[in-house]
Amino acid sequence: MAILLDVRVPHALGGAAARRLIDARMSDIEAALPPFVRDARGEWHDDVFAFGMTAFREQISGTISILETGIRVEATLPALAAPFERTIADAIRVHLETLISPRKPA
């Protein structure tokens, strides 16, 4: 049975600013994918990024929704990911928090 993952990260950026930030940092998101992820793809539909990928020959699909006060990631994971559900959710949460936080000058 598939696992439904739902991760929410609050922000105070406003919806439009959060969308611009996530869109600008999409390459950071792609770079953070583990090496066993293949065929990552996605596209924006208004403020929702629909994505799909393959990991260990299993399909993963979901959305990243940009809300006025938060970002929500919903994904359908294969059953074999059940033991790692919390680890995956925590990694997504930490990565999103990092993406939406202000970058420090180098």
Automatic annotation (TrEMBL):
Protein name: Polyhydroxyalkanoic acid synthase
Species: Chelatococcus reniformis
Domain of life of the native organism: Bacteria
Pfam families: PHA_gran_rgn
